[in-house]
Amino acid sequence: MTDEPKIWVALITAGFALVGTLFVAIFDYIGRKKQDDFNAEKELKLAKFNREKDDELEAFKAETNKTLKKLDSDLQKERDQRKEEQETEKIVSKFRDPLIHATYDLQSRIFNILEQSFLKNFFTEGSDREKEYSVENTVFLVAQFLGWTELVRQEIQFIDLKSDEETQKLRSLQDELYSQFQTDRCGKGFRLFAGEQRAVGELMINREGALLRCIGFAEFFKNRNPDIDYWLDSLREDVKKMANDIEPFKKRLNNIQHALIDLLEFLDQNYIYFPANKRKKCKPA
Questions:
Q1: Its pTM surpasses 0.85
Q2: Which of 155, 279, 173, 284 is nearest to 211 (CA)?
Q3: Among candidates 156, 170, 233, which has minimal Cα distance to 196?
Q4: E strand or H helix at 205, and its extent?
Q5: Distances in Å between the alpha carbon of 141 and those of 9, 29, 145, 272?
Q6: According to DSSP H, which parts of the chain are helical?
Q7: pLDDT for res 221
């Protein structure tokens, strides 16, 4: 019987140890469970965060690609526009000098007819040679201008003009001159319809060789082309009539000369070829 207390003490001690072990195991399990739950939640949050960042990154990449594509498209449009403008400028530059001189010569002749009594001095009171020259050279200056104008028109007609303000301006000035030559508001004298102007311009172009040009006065005068004369004979008669009475022709000549000065101002804006005092507009008719 003396061993019973020891046994109970041992049992109680073992019970406490077991309970302690169970408590430790339970608390350890709870701790691990909380840690696992915390880790799982952290992983979920991290995964969600990464997905959100991936989505943001993809959205950023998509927006960046969209912006880069637009930028590349805009740059390509600018390159194409510059190329068109350079091509147009190359074409216009090729014919700028002769067109400037043809424009100046015609406006100068009209100015001399209206303001300096050119036809009175050289047709009415001139020698036979002067009479012939005053008529033929005046008609030639019209034909020469139409020839160079037609050359420029043919060269730039296939170029997209929407992006080229300078070329649009040139076309507008040319159209104004076409209009002044053909309008009925100035009567029928010294009139050429648009198709007739184009026909004269086409026939004035010398297409022999690689360099296109207009025929000169010597060829025009000596090798009288009946095809050109068909369109110009009416102008010859009108020039002779002007020598006797300029009034019926004044309005058209005045409008043409003013339009030529406007074209000259556009082609030679810096007065490289002809000074400002050589570009006077006639007094309004």
A1: no
A2: 155
A3: 233
A4: strand 205-206
A5: 140, 111, 6, 22
A6: 4-115, 118-119, 128-156, 165-182, 194-203, 217-222, 226-244, 247-267
A7: 94
